[in-house]
Structure formats: C-alpha cells, structure tokens
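User: I'm writing a short report section on ligand binding and want a predicted complex to refer to. Could you take this sequence and 2-acetamido-2-deoxy-beta-D-glucopyranose and write out the structure as tokens? A short remark afterwards would be nice.
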Amino acid sequence: MCMVIFAPVLATFAFATCGGYSGHLRVKVDCADKSQANITISFGYPFRFEQVHFKVPLCEVKRHETLFLEGDFSTPAQFFVTVAVFAFLYSLLATVIYIFYQKEYREKNRGPLLDFLVTVIFASMWLLSSCAWAKALSGVKETMDSAQILFLMAACRDPVNDCEALEKPVWTRLHTSVIFGFLNVSLWAGNVWFAYKETGLHKTSQRANRTLSEKQSSFSQRQYSQQSSFDQSGATLGQQLYRQVSFDHSGGGISLPHASLGQASSLFNTSSRGPLILINDM
Ligand SMILES: *[C@@H]1O[C@H](CO)[C@@H](O)[C@H](O)[C@H]1NC(C)=O
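Assistant: Sure. The structure tokens for the complex follow:
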C-alpha cells in the first residue's frame, strides 16, 4: 500500500495541470495604412480548436475576417483527465477500504484479487492516456504555433503589413502534465507487483506444488509396499530417492537412512522399475 500517499497526489497533479490549463497567443497586426490591432487568441482544455475563433483586420479595407482554428484534441485530453480523476477516486476508496474494512477486504481473498485486477487496468489506462495525451500535446503546440497562426491571416500574408507575436502561450504546465502522466504509469505499474503479492497467488501456487508432491510421495510409498504395478507418481519418489542415494554415496556416507534404504532396495529390487526411473531422471 505504498500507493496510499503518492497515488492520489500524483493523480491530482496530472488532472490539475491538464484540465485547468488555459493559454493565450497575442498577435499585433500593423497595417501599411498605420492602423493597428492587437488580437488575443485564447484557448484551453479540452483543446477543441474548432470553437476558437477571432477577428482579424484585413488592412486594405476597413473590414475584418473571422478565422477559425482547426483540430480537435478533446478526446485524448479528456481521456487523460478522466483516467486521472478515476485513479484519484479509486486510490482514495482503496485506502479507506484497506484501513477501515480490513476484515471484509481479506474475506475469501476477494479484496486483494479485485485490487490487483483494477490496478492492472489503471496501469494500462495511464500508459494509454499518457501516450495519447503526449501526442495530442504536440498537435496542440503545432496548431498554436505563432508562425502558423500568422499565416492564416490574410493581412499578414501580405508583406506590406507587419505582423508579430507579442505573447506566446506558456507550455510548462502542459509539459508537466505529460511528465506526471508517465510518473503515474510507473507508480501504477509498480503497484501491480505489490497488488499481486497482496493476493498471495504466488504463495498459493508454491504451496499447491509442495502439497501435490507430498501427496504423490506418500501415495507411491504405499504403492511400493504393496509391490503393485508402476505408477506415474512413483517417478517423483524414484527421483528423490535416486538423488538421496547418489548424494549419500558422493558424500562418502556409509549410513543410508533406514527408511530410505528400505525404500531404495525395494525400488531397485522390483524388476524393471529401477532403470526406467533412472532414465526418467536424466
Ligand atoms: C498593442 O500592444 C502593444 C504592446 O503591448 C501596445 O504598445 C499597443 O498600444 C497595442 N495596440 C492596441 C491597438 O491596443
């Protein structure tokens, strides 16, 4: 639960830096006839540029043109903010459940399993949305590039008029939001491992293996004492015994454990079973 502190904070930084953004581009148009105009183009989250429009003087006559920008980056931007908000809510909820409903959380291992699943989903959502948002941001910056905007204005395409960008948008906050996006990716990806350990799945599978082999060996011991036919599970015991015997030999041990000596002798005495097992062991 190292996510308790970091996850809500990092998620908040991610959606605040992106969702709260608004930027401005200020352009000065100096017409050849000495008339002048300053144009401010405002834009912001969710970066739906079809809705951004502004009036620009045409210079040669006392008229204006209304220009619309192009490009819609609202899908990746809203996706990013949505993932961040839900990650924030989930990490708060998980913390509350983990602290106050520990018993219900542990019951039938349902809590840890669900937490693991949701964490995997959030880790992949963070990765997807951060990549999408990083790509969208480069599109946003391209759209708001001052040279690009000036080129849209008829007056500025005419070299007799003088156009200039007075104030360019500040991108620091949006760059920060991308960085926070990828910080969240690594936090949640790391969390997948902790959530997995919390489920106890890896311990369960180890324990299951051990129990299985114990059952097999006790079962095959019974089989050997009854001198019944060769069984698949006997291979396990055979391998164990073979290792034990060969270890004892290499160790220069004179005394084999009593039980295993008896088992070993029964193993090697029972017709064709011995060699078969030894080959099996290779
Ligand atoms: C435009 O902005 C410049 C610099 O900020 C200022 O000097 C000028 O007076 C402004 N012009 C108009 C028409 O507002």
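A remark for your report: Residues 119 and 192 are 6 Å apart (CA to CA). The chain has two domains: 2-204, 233-282.
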